[in-house]
Design goal:
- The protein is of the alpha+beta class.
- It folds into two domains: 93 residues, Beta Polymerase, domain 2 (2-Layer Sandwich); 193 residues, no CATH class.
- 57% of the residues lie in helices and 9% in strands.
- It has 13 helices and five strands.
- A five-stranded mixed beta sheet has the order 3-4-2-1-5, with helices on both faces.
- The longest helix is centred in the middle third of the chain and has 27 residues.
- It is globular and about 60 Å long.
- The termini are far apart.
- 41% of the residues are buried.
Length: 290
């Protein structure tokens, strides 16, 4: 892709610009977008088509302080930076790299424990979202484990990365993720249903054409018979979007219908509670090590 042409045609010449994501980290495949980051002090992201390829344009700030976002810049390749501000910004990230990964991991573990608690509270009430909270708890645990192995979060490659991690006391908890997230249920008919609901949920919440990438990833996974990876990817994407509305669920009750399919929620509530307890145990175990 002609990145210079992309910058010019999208009026980005006045800002620092870098490329990151899978294509820079070396774990990309044909389904991966080109991740372009423009530091224009805005927020959000959107999918654009350029030269028959998908580009995820991320808006960012050079005063960003959240570890989750800063780690997305780890290893970024600078394309445009006349003032050298981006170069200095990335240098500071590199210096704090290990601390940022550990901070993000701790935050993810805390979020996972919060989701476990919400799961249990929901199961004791008329709240329909208990199984959704449990799924989120499992995905947050996976985020934490990868971060503690200094791996940048890349949803379409996460299950593959988790499989390749060496055996350590922390990584033993990967089994909790794989046993509670539901990947053993992955079949083509189920994934087709999950895809439609995941894309619909993305369009409702993100409103940025991300559903195009979700379809692209799905096609790649299915073509290559990577059904478990596809299941994990769709669930992780739903976790991210569910998190954006978690404080307003009382006003979003109708979404339970689409989320039940998108998350492939477990109907056995006793099993949901057992899974939440298992995730909670793993989170506390890792926090004890840290």
């Amino acid at each position: 892709m002609d990145i210079a042409k992309f910058i010019h045609e999208n009026d980005l010449t006045s800002f620092p610009v870098g490329v990151g994501g899978c294509r820079v980290s070396g774990i990309n495949n044909n389904s991966c977008d080109h991740d372009v980051f423009v530091f224009d002090e805005k927020s959000g992201k959107k999918i654009l088509k350029f030269e028959d390829e998908s580009v995820m344009l991320h808006h960012g700030s050079l005063s960003e302080s959240e570890s989750k976002q800063l780690l997305q810049y780890d290893g970024m390749k600078i394309i445009q930076d006349e003032s050298w501000e981006l170069r200095m910004f990335l240098s500071k990230i590199s210096e704090k790299r290990i601390l940022l990964y550990r901070d993000f991991a701790k935050n993810s573990l805390i979020e996972s424990l919060f989701c476990c608690q919400k799961t249990k509270e929901s199961l004791k009430s008329t709240d329909s979202f208990g199984s959704c909270w449990q799924k989120c708890a499992a995905f947050y645990l996976s985020d934490a484990i990868l971060s503690l192995n200094y791996q940048r979060i890349s949803p379409s490659h996460m299950l593959e990365l988790l499989r390749k991690l060496e055996k350590t006391q922390i990584n033993e908890n990967i089994s909790t993720v794989t046993q509670t997230v539901g990947i053993e249920r992955a079949t083509l008919p189920l994934l087709e249903r999950m895809l439609k609901s995941t894309m619909g949920f993305s369009d409702l919440i993100e409103k940025n054409n991300h559903s195009q990438t979700i379809q692209q990833k799905y096609d790649y996974f299915v073509t290559n018979s990577m059904l478990s990876d596809c299941y994990f990817y769709l669930g992780w994407i739903n976790k991210e979007n569910f998190t954006k509305i978690k404080d307003n669920l009382n006003r979003e009750q109708d979404l339970i219908h689409i989320l039940k399919v998108a998350f492939d929620v477990e109907a056995d509530l006793n099993l949901v509670e057992q899974q939440a307890n298992s995730i909670e145990k793993s989170c506390n175990s890792i926090l004890g090590i840290l």
